[in-house]
Amino acid sequence: MSLFSLTSLLLSILCGLLAVYIFFSSKETLYKLWSLFNGVVCLWGLFLFLASLSRIESESLIFWKFSLLAPSLMPSILLRFINALTDKDNKNFKKLCDVYAAISVILILETNLFIKNGSFYFDTFYYIKSTKAMSIWLIFFVLSICKILWNLFEFTRNEKGLKSTQATYIFWGMSVGFLGGLSVALPSYGFKIFPIGHILVSVYAATVTFAIKREFIDMKLSLIKLLIPFLIVISAVVGYCLTNFHLNLFALAGLLLGSACFTLAYVILAYANQRMHHIWAIFNVCIGIWGAGTFFVGVSNKPTIALIAWKIAYIGVLLLPVLFYHMIYIFCDLKNKKFLTFAYAQVIFVLLVNIFTNQFIGRLEYVFNSFYYHRVTSVYLFFFVIWVTVAINTFFRLYRFIKTSEGLKRTQALYLFWGMLLGFAGGTTVVAPAFGIPIYPYGHFFICIYAAICTYAIFRYQVLDIRVAITRLGVFVLVYSLVLGVPFGLIIWGKLWLFKLMGENWFWAPMSTLLILATAGPFMYIYFQSRAEEQILKEERRIQSLIQKTSIGMVAIRDLNKLLKVIIDVLGKNLQLEHISVYLFDPNENIYNQKASDKIEEEGFVLEHDDLLVQELKKRKSPLYYEEINHLLHNQKDSNGELKALVDRMQKLSASVIVPASKEDILLAFIVLGKRGKKEVYSPELLDVLGVVGNEAALAIENAIFYEESGKDWSERAHDARLKMMGAMGSGIAHQINNKFHAIGFQLNYLKELSEVSDLTKMTPDDLRKSQQELKDEIGKILTEIDRSVEIVQAIKNYAKRTGAEPQVTSFKEVVTGAKHLAKMIRKDNDVEYELIEDYPENVLLWVNFSMLQDVFVNAFDNSRDALILKKYRLGKDAQKLEEYKPKITVSGRANTTMFDFVIEDNGMGIEKHHLEEGQGVNVMYFTTKGAVKGTGMGIAMMRQFAKHNRGGLKIESEYGQWTRITISLPLATPEQIKGGSNEPKNGR
């Protein structure tokens, strides 16, 4: 039994079992028709099996004749099956298929028009030879099946849900099965390809049965799940070819091209959701066929096999310019359908000429001492001119589209143009030997590159700048040409010289060179790539850096109108925008109004707070790119219409990008950016920069609104709060100053008494030295008390003085020291003694306002002392716990690269957990736990505002009854700021 016999038997058994199973599974017409179809396929496989077993020619031809009856019935049965599935009734076409079946059956049984004689093929069995009647019969069969499958394909595009998924499974299953079944006819036309492709018929029979039983998963998901097995099969095929064939460079290129493009086609089909994607998948299949064909050309050692391989290769290559034009026709929305029809009509004709005659492929010659190459014929030359004309026309139309388009479409078109140009240029070099030009045909290596480039451009909504892509590709080619070229050059041209120099070990020289260059290659590539991109994107990166630096300074602008004007000027001029506007939230009306625009006469739109666009900006908190949303609209199912509504809204606003200015969960404003000048695109890097600008704008807008609503900035309100605190310090100040005067008075009285009782004339030298030392000690104590008094007075002066919010070089230690003195002046009736622990680096210099940072510590110390007092009061009933309790406040800090993080912690009463939740308690203004008499709720709010104003942060943690910890981050002063300020840190003096 031959392999053909075995596959035919397996096909017959499988389809027979399916026919019986389906027949008894349901009484529906759909199931009965599918059972009948499988029964016909079963008979076809059975007669093929009997024909392959027969060793008598006449007997074998009888079985072959009966095997042709089944295909004659297939179009009629299949059409009825598809009509039952799609609920359609193609009456005229159904009558035509019925007439075809009836005439075919009669002619096959009653005449010898279809089968006259056979040949003993593959030294195994008799195979029929084609006749004119058989060819006509086969052409009608193919055309009718194509028509049925096309109707099914149209149904998959228009229908949704379960029916669409069933039809998709059936379409692809039928396509695979009929292609496999048609391969059985190839030996009848002289193609000596062993006929085992009909085993694929069983695959589609099982697939369709699986689909109509409605126990299936989505086709795309199935393809994705089978991707790894597919890659394993491809890898196994490539591995088999590499180990079992003697490969020249032409065959190797064909193998790599075929495997790569078949894989690419599979991946595209798995993720395709547009008509253009499907065409691109077919395009890659055609390239894969070309690669497979050239592989067999390269390994064939007989002209007959090489001729068949060339015919297969040209089946793929002839379709390429037509599919390219069809794809550009869709991509560029062209209207010239007549040229598309002409392109397909001529390629169908030339394909038939290529398959069924030898007029297209000329005589074969053995070239490059390696493989057989065909020569140009007049028919080949004629259609080659048409092939080139279609390709040039497509490039011309794509070029015109590039000139008139912009944004993502233009970038994608540039990728397609240069990628296709690279591929067609490389592929065309393969034609040179056919014209007698002795150029080795290795140019189709480039086809892999352009297939990948174009796939990237088609599927990605945001692609690299084409200049960057070409630069990266150029650098890659140059670097790895060096990495691979030098070692191979040593092998090819330096072999004799190396052999004389190193003897039998000459091969180590190129191998060592390859190892060294391969190790250095990635580093060379990264270095040259970064340098090249730095030059290409120099201006773009300068603009991005300028925008980012300018946005940081926006927080210092207090006038809202001036701030919005700065935003418009900075972005509008640097990005050369057609238009830009800012929409601001109005809390009174709950709407977003156009507050500023670069076009004064333009009246903006009004958006409600619950508008879909507003909700999307709140959810994303990142720039909304029109091209991305439009891409998603055309590539994803938009069941609820949200994507369509977003696209319409952005078109109404003439927005290419919308940048949200969000503060936590509040969308304060959004910036509408129009198209860029010179048809520039919004790159991913630029969108990231705009996201940062949005965050900076939110902080600046919040501050400006805060200033505008209060009538004065928060530094002025902090000054008012300090003056009120001064009132609370009154008794404390008096107490502190009184203590100092008492201490100084006590020391002076002691000196007075010492001078009265001492008779210098009667003192011994030792007594004089002793008295002199006591005098020095007492004077030192007096001076110390005076210095402390000066510090207290200076701290009071600094605290009461009006200051701006401008940052300055500030000594952290001096801030803590001053705040420590001030905290002691805030005396309370039930005051508490506490230990102050200081654990931070000496000489830490910050870039903040001295007085405002001192406010932070005074407020923190005051709150901590209240917490210590409350905890001591709570412990008052338990004498043992009260004795064990040691009140303390700790100030610690650590510096990192640019920020100084410090912590103020106490072991007081702490804060209840629900007061720490976001949007509640200490996180909102005017909240206090001290009651209306003692607290205003502004202390922590001012501390938080101060930290944010200085681009830092504040975090409060606490465990009720145990401790409270306030962590604050503030910027360190840079060397430039220290040098540009003064030699001494600012402390308010």
Characteristic terms for this protein:
34 helices, alpha+beta, 5-stranded mixed sheet, elongated, 65% helix, 989 residues, 17 strands
Walkthrough of the structure:
- The structure is a single chain.
- Helices cover 65% and strands 10% of the residues.
- It has a six-stranded antiparallel β-sheet with strand order 7-6-5-10-9-8. A five-stranded mixed β-sheet has the order 12-14-15-17-16.
- A hairpin with a 3-residue loop joins strand 3 and strand 4.
- Helix 9 (219-225) crosses helix 11 (249-271), helix 18 (466-493) packs across helix 19 and helix 28 crosses helix 29 (812-825).
- The chain starts with a helix and ends in a 9-residue tail after the last helix.
- The chain has 989 residues and is of the alpha+beta class.
Give me the secondary-structure topology:
Elements: H1 3-25, H2 29-53, H3 57-67, H4 69-86, H5 91-110, E1 118-121, E2 125-128, H6 132-158, H7 162-182, H8 200-212, H9 219-225, H10 227-244, H11 249-271, H12 275-299, H13 303-331, H14 337-356, E3 364-367, E4 371-374, H15 378-404, H16 407-428, H17 445-459, H18 466-493, H19 495-502, H20 508-536, H21 538-552, H22 560-575, E5 580-586, E6 591-597, E7 607-608, H23 612-620, E8 624-625, H24 626-635, H25 642-652, E9 657-663, E10 666-673, H26 684-710, H27 714-757, H28 765-800, E11 808-811, H29 812-825, E12 835-839, E13 845-848, H30 850-874, H31 879-884, E14 888-895, E15 899-906, H32 931-934, H33 939-949, E16 953-959, E17 963-971, H34 975-980
Parallel strand pairs: 12-14
Antiparallel strand pairs: 1-2, 3-4, 5-6, 5-10, 6-7, 8-9, 9-10, 11-13, 14-15, 15-17, 16-17
